[in-house]
Amino acid sequence: MLLEVEGLSVVIEGRRRHPFEPRAQARILRDVSLHVAAGETLGLVGESGSGKTTLGRAILRRLPITTGRISFQGEDITHLEGEALRQRRRHMQMIFQDPYASLNPRRTVAEIIAEPLRAHGLGADRAAVAARVAELIALVGLPGDAATRHPHAFSGGQRQRVGIARALAM
């Protein structure tokens, strides 16, 4: 299995109304289990606010997990921390449904796609990063001049391809 999620729950504590009152808890996800084999595709479908993005962020360990277990490529990542978690995240990426909301409008497509490479220390050589960005732009079927343009200059489908290229960069 590529990804196994067993009994995942996320509870977030809210604010107190009074200093001596216990914090309210909001159960965001409850007992979610799923299995994805290598080569399979899983689509999460649900109404706005149903927890799709929250589930993705919890799997990536960007949110604290209350209960459950997450295994990626056969390794239990539920309790990974620090550099070990950072290294594992290099192989896990999210592609958001609304690409415009997830792309920085002030950055060019080249900067957006190069960002994960630099964040993970893989962008020391600017020429290598530029070559990888050009390769990814071509791979997802964007026009050759896409690197110098900003997200607002693209259609929704093209913006989604920018998000896919960014995810594939790793």
Shape annotation: globular
Percent strand equals 15-25%
Number of strands: 4
Query: Helicity, in percent?
Result: 25-40%
* H/E element order: EEHEEHHHHH
Distance between the termini: 20 Å
What's the number of helices? 6
Sheet with the most strands: spatial strand order: 2-1-3-4
SSE class: alpha+beta
Largest sheet: 4 strands, antiparallel
Detail the poorly predicted runs. Answer: none
Radius of gyration: 18 Å
Q: What do the pLDDT scores average to? A: 87
What this model shows, in words?
- This protein is of the alpha+beta class and 170 residues long.
- It contains six helices and four strands.
- Strands 2-1-3-4 form a four-stranded antiparallel beta sheet, covered by helices on one side.
- Helix 4 packs across helix 5, helix 4 packs parallel to helix 6 and helix 5 crosses helix 6.
- The model has no long low-confidence stretch (mean pLDDT 87).
